[in-house]
Amino acid sequence: MLNTRELLIALIYSTCYFVIQSEASCEPSPWTQWVLCLDNDQEYRVRETQKNDACTSTPCNHTSAEYREYQCSILKTPNVDQDTRAVRSELMSLDPNITMVAEKLAKGSASDRLRMSKYYKAAYGSDLLSDLSASFVDVVDDNCWSSLIGGTTDHVATSLIHLIQLVNSDHVSALLITNDNEEIERIQLQYKRDTGESLDDAISQRFSGDESRVLRSLASGQRDEYSAIGTADVEGDAYDLRQATLISDAHEILRILGAKDKTHLNEVFNQYKSTYGRWVQYHIRRKITGSVQASLLNIVDYISDDEKFCAVKIFFALGLATGTTLDEQAVERTLVDCAKVSLCKTVLKYQEIYNRDLADDITNIYHGPCAPLLVPLATLQ
Q1: N or C: which end of the chain has fewer CB within 10 A?
Q2: Per mean pLDDT, which of 47-61, 110-124, 266-280 is the most reliable?
Q3: Average pLDDT over residues 309-323
Q4: Which CATH architecture has domain 231-304?
């Protein structure tokens, strides 16, 4: 008869034998999402095999990684000198190729295009916008070139004039939330020059109630952009935000969403989800009604994921969402506004969410005056 020690040894042996047999294959875990490398040239993803066990004969805690070239890498930043000369050469030809010109201009950010415009003026003593308009008469509307090349300040101010006249708070808030305080200040000055009235006065005269308060907050350019993130502040704002949604208090929701630092708010949204089991968007949709709901959601959606925000807005503007129709001006506005930094990440996000190619959708659906420019914007270079 086996004693206690012998029984224990036998039990350990049988258990280890089972573990060795069951874990010998070291079946790996699923791959993680692709993550951008620090050099911006590659992405990587990893996976781990099952954790090693004391009784396992083969170690199974190895981590493997895969790498691939990142499609939005820094390598695709335009060479201002080289690209400007290429554009100039094409514009001076007898039959300039608009696709080639648009691809050069669409490659970088709004600041890159502004640098190209200044370089063009200094190098050739001519205005890039004027030469583009003259070379492609009746091909592309002059406003399209102006929106793309003239800088986002002019573009946003012009768009705001139109949208405020239409009393469209959803689109006004979507435009304003994408700009920081410095950009808002420039937009205010441009709006005043173009209309003779301040942006704040224009909003207050055409909107009312909570809708007006949200838009005036976004147009003030007074958001805190420098606060350090503290755990207590994050938890406190998440709690206050939940209490405000419970009683449908749009004023209190705006106090948090309109004034706090965007990085801080992103932490607040994560804390909200962790504590209350739902993203704050869910409760805003359930507890806040009327047009102010869309403006509050625009703030949360943009701060949470700006690339997804742009991809969704473009999808809706193209009329691809259930119950929507094509809005050509919204397509133009959203693409140019999202191209301030780069559209590359938005294009990839669009593919990820909808399993569709954005350039193909624009080609097949949008036939407005800016089509020759928008397709290159939406094409991965």
Answers
A1: N
A2: 266-280
A3: 94
A4: Orthogonal Bundle (1.10)
